[in-house]
Amino acid sequence: MLRRVCGLALLALAGLGLPANAQTTLEWKFKEGDKFYTEDVSDMRLSLSVAGRDLNQKVKTTLVESYTVKEVSGKTVRLEKKTESVDVRSSGDSMGGQLEKIMDKLQGAVLTVVLTEGKATKFEGYDEFLKKVAGEDEFSGKFARELLSERLLKKSIEMTFGELPDRAVKAGDTWSQNNTIPFELGDFKTTQDFTFKERDKDGVVLTFKGTVNYVPPAKDKGVFGGLLKIVKGKMKSDNFKGTRVFDAEKGRLVRATSSMLVRGALVIEIMGNQLEMDLSVDQTTTTKLLSKNPKSD
Q1: Which domain holds residue 198?
Q2: CATH number of residue 55's parent domain
Q3: How far apart (Å, rounded) are the C-alpha atoms in residues 182 and 63?
Q4: Domain total for the chain?
């Protein structure tokens, strides 16, 4: 089987007219006026055990966003990001419904991001973006500011436009990246080991495997709008993996997938009472970059 796969890979390279050891620079290419769409589909299974009660919920979120290239200056680009549609479908135990309310209001929200070499360095219109999502309700505003914090939005954008090697690479090359992913209950520290696996008809195929470790927030910091505090916690995953297919000629992501299963325990404080919580999050995400809006065109 291995020989067959390698043989097919070599045939594909020959068909492209490229030597097997050809190096490729993977970087985004932007042109003022261009517009494209991303479709993110996330399937999450959340299991909680707290105070002798087990809670289980499945949530499927389909998010379509458009990006319009407003300005390109060297390695810096201004992108207008608009949420075109949001579809949240959940089943199982109810956990408040606040997430669904905020996600519903995301539709039509606009935010401009300044991107430099894959890093989101600045947002324009963030306060207006939050007002569109949260309205005038104070609690919803606090919750939205946590759920859609600048840190989280920047990292989400960087995971779309970044995660590429900082040097020219060829099939078989490996490299590592470390990231911090903000989460409502703290942060996740990730280590990803990438491999340039092969080329296929859509572009360069990158795979990664990695680990995820949880870092609790400061003990005096309330989460979920101040409803609770995290006293301590430990969660991790040794099964973080995924793929990215990148079209080097066009300078665009084609598609990406990732999956992780995170398990652990938290000690939370609610109204002065401490509770132990066992937590499991099983999530898969698929991203596609498209030239047309899949929901309307």
Answers
A1: 20-290
A2: 2.30.230
A3: 19
A4: 1
